[in-house]
Amino acid sequence: MQNTYETDLNVIAKEALSKEEENDHFLRFVKRQDGERTDTLAHDLNDLVSAAIDCTQCGNCCKTLVINVTDEEVITLSGNLQLSQEETNERYIETSLGGRHFINTVPCAFLTGNMCSIYEHRFTECKDFPHLHKDGFKERLLGTLLHYGRCPIIYNVIEEMKIALHFKDDTVA
């Protein structure tokens, strides 16, 4: 495994475009792998890559993703901001017809530079992104690949995983 990882978002975005077909083949390849093995590998690689990449130098997830929040998180946010729940909802929260809540702006209203202004109280979805520490990697790989060109951690974990699993895409020139 490499010691340096790609963090340039322009390079990662270009690679994502050029590797779309390869990543589609990798998705099918991983579906045939043992789930426990891929989970362990994803967890281990996530630990290595995450330790080497400072998310506060990027913040791209906060700049480009819709962030879902729970009812409880809206209540906590209101308290932390010292606002009424109604005012918090009016300023920061959108609610879907199905009743799900999400932050009403992209980039996130709580992003200052590349850092979260409510980091200690950030939402579960933010804490968990990019979700590579969770089990069920191969079942969630399609969703993970949707962020391959956006997140340096995902990009590098996937590239390292291709090496570790001896993935060889002979169909791509």
Short description:
With 173 residues, the protein is mostly helical. It has helices spanning 9-18, 20-31, 35-52, 60-64, 71-81, 85-92, 124-128, 137-145, 152-164; strands at residues 68-69, 93-95, 101-103, 111-112, 115-116.
Count the domains.
2
Shape: elongated
Helix content: 40-55%
The main β sheet shows up as: 3 strands, antiparallel
Would you spell out the secondary-structure blueprint of this structure?
Elements (H helix, E strand, L loop, with lengths): L8 H10 L1 H12 L3 H18 L7 H5 L3 E2 L1 H11 L3 H8 E3 L5 E3 L7 E2 L2 E2 L7 H5 L8 H9 L6 H13 L9
Antiparallel strand pairs: 1-3, 2-3, 4-5
Helix pairs in contact: 2-8, 3-9, 5-6
Provide the descriptors you would attach to this structure in a database record.
single chain; 3-stranded antiparallel beta sheet; mainly alpha; elongated; 2 domains; 9 helices; 173 residues; two-stranded antiparallel ribbon
Describe it for me?
With 173 residues, this protein is mostly helical. The chain is built from nine helices and five strands; from the N terminus they run H-H-H-H-E-H-H-E-E-E-E-H-H-H. The protein folds into two domains: 9-55 and 132-164, no CATH class; 66-128, no CATH class. The protein has helices spanning 9-18, 20-31, 35-52, 60-64, 71-81, 85-92, 124-128, 137-145, 152-164; strands at residues 68-69, 93-95, 101-103, 111-112, 115-116. It has a three-stranded antiparallel sheet. A two-stranded antiparallel sheet has the order 4-5. The radius of gyration is 18 Å and the shape is elongated. The two termini are 24 Å apart.
